[in-house]
Design a protein that fits this description.
alpha+beta
Amino acid sequence: MKKQTVFLSFFILFALNICDAQIFFRTADLFRYTGPRSGSGELNIIQNLSVDTLISRYVLANRLLAGGDMEGFRIQIYRNSNRNAREESNKVRAEFMIEFPDIPSYAEYAEPGYFLVKVGDFRTKLEGTKLLYLIRKKYPNAYMVPCNINFPDLNKK
């Protein structure tokens, strides 16, 4: 009987610890007040608690993306699976880096044996369309593909 009580209390503590590990965001936490500013006012957010639940789910879903990246688009300029595809993809990437030094490029491998070269980090297709037309002058088979992208620097123009 005593073993069962100890086991049950240990199980309950373990379950509470897991529940405590779940992160819950409130909207007020997203707009944190850091200190007094001259001429500033006060922000009161009055809303349904289900909005906070949705925000928490959204934040958690974005954290679970591969590597903390975000969904977006890249331009694929090379895809091949022949015997020397790895060397060709490295050559294509090196040529691209010389031709377009400001655009990031990524070498990837996809099953069942394709070597890919993708370039750019675009949040929407519209962002990458102008660049796609520019790249198609040098790489006529280039096209836009959905990918998990790195967070683009929004301060850079």
